[in-house]
C-alpha cells in the first residue's frame, strides 16, 4: 500500500496584497475594557479609559475582513470615563500625491442628538491633527452621517438614515496633495450590501469630495484613529483595511494552502476568497540550501469575489524535503508571495510493478512502477514470442514511484508482456490489447 503524507496549512485569510494597515482585532476569546492592554500597536493619544475590546466581531457579506476575530467597542463618556482616544499607525506614512483608502465595518447601537466624530485619520505622529472626521447624529429611529476635512463645519446628508444594530461598510478616502497647504480633500462612501470591486460601486451615501480651501494640511497621513467624546455614538468598528488604491483592499486572499505527498509526487491545493487583477500563480520549489525555482504556473481568475479552488501536481521527485510557495502575479507585473509549505518525500520500501490500467486497453494504458533505490531503469514491452516491440523507459531515475503512458496504436491486438528492470531486479506482467 502506498504511503500518503498530508501537510495542511489553514490560513486566517492570507492576503497577497500589501496594505498600509490591516486590523481584524483578533486578540482572543475574552473581552477587555482597554484595547491598549491587549494590543501594543494601538496607542492612546488622549484620555484615560477605553475603547474596549470585544471578542465577537462584525460580519459583512463579501468583505475580505468579515468575521475575523473580535471588534473595537466605543461609546461616549466624560473625563476619565470612556474618554480614551486611540490610533494605530500605518506600516508607512504617505507624503506624496496619492489617495489613501480606509475601509471599515461599523455597527451603531445608539447615537447622540448632538453630532460628534469618532473616526478620523492623522499623520504618523498624530498629535492633535485630525483629518477626515466621520460624524454621527441621532435622527429619529436611526442616525445620519457627516464628514469634515478638519475643524470646519461638517457636511451631512440627512436624506440617508442608517439603521441601528445593522453593519455597514464605510470607505473613507483621503486625497493627499502636497502642492499646497489647503488642497487635500476627503470623500466618504457608505455601503449596506455588497463590496464594490471598483470605486465607487453603488454606495447608499456619498459625501464629498470636500476640503479644498481648508488649510493646515498635514505633512503626511500615517494613522487611523478611534475617538470617544461626550457626544460620540456607541457601537463597534471592525475589519479596518487601509491602502493607497481601491483594489489593494481587495487582495488575492488565500483561505487555505495545502501540500500532500503520494509516492514521489506532490499535490498542491489552494483556495481563494477574492481576487483582483490576478494573472495567476507561479509555483516555486526549493530544497535545503537551494534557491527557489519556478516549477509551474496556474492561471488566475482576474477579478472576482467568488471562492475558487486551484491545484498543481509536481511529479517524479527524488527523496528529500521540499518547500513550496505561491508567487501571485498581477496583470501589471506586481507580485506577492504566500506562506511556505513543506513536505517530505520518502523512498519507497519495495520494488514494485503495478498492473497496467485500463486492462484490456485500446490503444493507451498507464503503467506504474516503484524503485526503492536510485539507478538505471528500463521498462520494455514484448510480444509472446519474446521479441521486444518497444522500450518505454531506459534512463537513470531517482528512487520513487513513477507512472508512464504506453500507446499501442501501431500494434496488433493480443497479449503482451511488460518488464521492469533496475539494480539487478526484474518484474514482468501481462497486458491485453483489444482493438
UniProtKB/TrEMBL annotation:
Keywords: Signal. The keyword Methyltransferase does not apply. Gene3D superfamilies: 2.60.40.4070, Immunoglobulins. This is T9SS type A sorting domain-containing protein. Residues 357-431 form the Secretion system C-terminal sorting domain. It comes from Ignavibacterium album. It holds the Pfam family Por_Secre_tail. InterPro entries: Ig-like_fold, Secre_tail. Residues 1-21 form the signal peptide. Transmembrane segments: none annotated.
